[in-house]
Amino acid sequence: MHVVIFEGFYWTRLAPLSLSRPVFMLMSGTGTLLDKQLRFLKPSKVTFWVRPEMVNYCQRFVIPHMKVPASINTPLDDEPALLISGRTLYFSNYEYPGSPAAVIDEGNIVRSAFVHMPGLTQQDAIHRSDRWLEILKLPHVMPQGRLVDYTWDVLNWNEESLLEDSVSAVDKRVPHPAGPWHKINDENVVLSEDVKIMPGAVLDGSSGPIMIGKGACIGVSSVIQGPAYIGDHTVLQPFTHIRSGTTIGARCRVGGEISNSIIHGYSNKSHYGFLGDSYVGEWVNLGAGTSTSNLKNTYDEVQVRIAGKSYRTGRTFVGSVIGDHTKTAIGTRLMTGSYIGYCTQIARSMITPQFVPSFSWNSDKGTIPYRMDKAIHVMQAVYSRRNVPWTDEDTAMVDTAVAMAAIAEKAD
Questions:
Q1: How many Cβ atoms sit within 10 Å of the Cβ of residue 370?
Q2: DSSP character for 383?
Q3: How far apart are CA 194 and CA 306, in angstroms?
């Protein structure tokens, strides 16, 4: 079946993570939303309908890894196709309808549709053209997945996502010799090749699976409570505490206490401090003692404030969402429901504002724009420390994030 994965208009809801990647590349469980979409839809061909600014990203990081024919922003041809929102999170195999039908959310939002509409384009989806609105007239059917509206939805469902991923992860289990460390519920602990576990570490699978990627290192006396995932070549510093619902991407360095949080690859939280119910992008560095509040003193519902507008989360526990390339100084305190944008610098002795826009420098003197030449210089230095080359395409992606932030973080 030909599957079209589209971003649609509401990519802004997933900022700042969506400023630099298509919405389907957000992490959930041990992979991305796209990984689950491909696993459960089992397409024979895939077309990605993304913002024009995300075409280069897809060409670099998505298309080369596809195992079926794939294209970007091509119109529908004369064959049936399944259209699905890139914000969809699946937990089970998709059952294709036998005739044209659509899943419509409140507000006439197309979540998915099985259609035969030759010539329909990505622009129709983005701009909700008259042709796109014809989908609303199709017979309505029940959804088979969940639609991620905001980053806290991904966090809310991450434990379930990890549990689902563990079913296939068991087949990748690599035998590991016993050592001076402890496993609880051995059948729930899945280790990949070349994992190094230091003395005194505890892998507690009593409440859910623990999956550790190849080449990862679990430091002395660290504790991991499942369900949790530690990505390839990630290092847990000694005495790290990873609590349930946590996903840590590849090549990260983490320490302190982390609970029910998602961290994309190449990010550092190497020192003490608490990260709870938070979503962190790539190439982030959280200074020693950086801590997030994830619960209001009043135990009320948390609201997230973005550019002058508040969003209700429906959750009592919400930490921070932190964009790519952001850095915090030692002792940084992030309030409940904080939005910290793409490539921001937090260097203040006082509590950080709940909203800090992208490409800004926040100190005790206030918030000022981050000089772009300096920002890119720092990014290049960080890449060099990890032996990753900086290319013109990386510079172009920063320019894209600037343009996307101007849209997503625009005050009403």
A1: 20
A2: H
A3: 42
DSSP 133-160: HGGGGSPB---SSEE--SHHHHHHTHHH
Tokens of residue 24, six digits: 């389907």
What are the mean pLDDT values of the chain's consecutive 10-residue runs (412 residues total)? Answer: 93 96 98 97 97 96 96 96 97 93 91 96 92 95 94 97 89 76 92 95 96 97 98 98 98 98 98 98 98 95 89 95 98 97 95 96 94 95 96 96 95 62
Helices 158-169/33-41 angle, 10° precision: 50
CA gap 177, 212 in Å, rounded: 15
Name residue, tokens 């044209």: 100
- Rounded to whole angstroms, the Cα distance separating 225 from 214 reads 19
Contacts for 239-247 with beta carbons within 8 Å, 24 or more apart? 244/159, 244/207, 244/208, 245/155, 245/158, 245/159, 245/162, 246/158, 247/27, 247/28, 247/29, 247/30, 247/158, 247/162
pLDDT score for 176? 74
Please list, in sequence order, all residues whose beta carbon lies within 8 angstroms of the beta carbon of residue 59, skipping any fewer than 6 positions away: 72
- E-only strand ranges, 12-127: 27-28, 31-32, 45-49, 70-72, 81-85, 88-89, 101-105, 109-115
Tokens linked to 106? 């409140």
The pLDDT tens digits of the residues spanning 58-82 come to 999 999 999 999 999 999 999 999 9
Q: Of 325, 27, 331, 330, whose CA–CA distance to 340 is shortest?
A: 325
Q: What is the pTM of this model?
A: 0.95
Q: Measure the CA–CA gap between 374 and 231, rounded to whole angstroms.
A: 30
Q: How far apart are CA 300 and CA 296, in angstroms?
A: 6
Looking at residue 390, what is its pLDDT? 97
List C-alpha distances in Å: 105 to 129, 223, 296: 17, 41, 31
Type of residue numbered 137: K
Query: What is the pLDDT, as a whole number, of residue 334?
Result: 97
pLDDT of residue 412: 57
Q: Return d(Cα 303, Cα 313) in angstroms, integer.
A: 6
The letter for the amino acid at 16 is P
Give me Rg for the CA atoms of the chain.
21
Longest Cα separation, the chain: 65
**CA dihedral angle for residue 282, residue 283, residue 285, residue 291, rounded to 10 degrees:** 0
> CB–CB of 24/96 below 8 Å?
no
- Report CA-CA distances (Å) from 278 to 93, 154, 167, 302: 29, 10, 25, 13
Amino acid at 214: K
Rounded-to-integer distance, Cα 340 and Cα 399, Å: 18
